Amino acid sequence: MRGLEASLGISKTEIGASIKRSLASGIAIKDRNTNRPNPNRRNLRDFITYGLKFVFPAKPGPMQRGLPTAFAAPVLKESLHSAGSLIHVWPYARGYEMGQSIEPLFKTVPEAAEKDERLYAYLALVDAIRLGNQREANLAANLLKERLG
């Protein structure tokens, strides 16, 4: 848990509670040999694809400086070209782009994404699902499915 705490900026208490919720909901399962929690990839993918936008809806906010997310993030930047020039960003003082702000899933997301490129890609895909219309959300969901296996 200490590694997660350091890399994500989330307290051990919050991580422990999250693991308990994940086990209770079936998003995670305990390994039979080690008794450690592991993600249930199919259930996690289904929750992100079909349920997350209802639990954590994303509403574009005011223009702010931040870290690009959704289709402005590196993982999706070349996948779809928008007719508009506005991008979505997580508000972040050390951010390098101006865009319409999107509240991240947790306050430490920009810092964690800046440290870990793979995590950044996953979180940007999640935001694309939360924000996108059906075509965009489907593209992000398919890329997420490829990455999760």
What count of domains describes the coordinates?
2
Helix and strand element order: HHEEHEEEHHH
- Please tell me how large the radius of gyration is: 16 Å
What is the makeup of the main sheet?
3 strands, mixed
Low-pLDDT stretches are: none
Distance between termini? 24 Å
Summarize model confidence as the mean pLDDT: 90
| β-strand number | 5
Helix content: 40-55%
Task: Work out the helix count.
Answer: 6
Shape: globular
Report the β-strand fraction as a percent range.
Answer: 5-15%
Q: Structural class, judged by helices and strands? A: alpha+beta
Protein described:
By secondary structure, this protein is an alpha+beta fold. It has two domains: 38 residues, no CATH class; 86 residues, no CATH class. Helix content is 49%, strand content 15%. It starts with a helix and ends with a helix.
In brief:
Helices cover 49% and strands 15% of the residues. It has 149 residues and is α+β, with helices and mostly antiparallel strands.
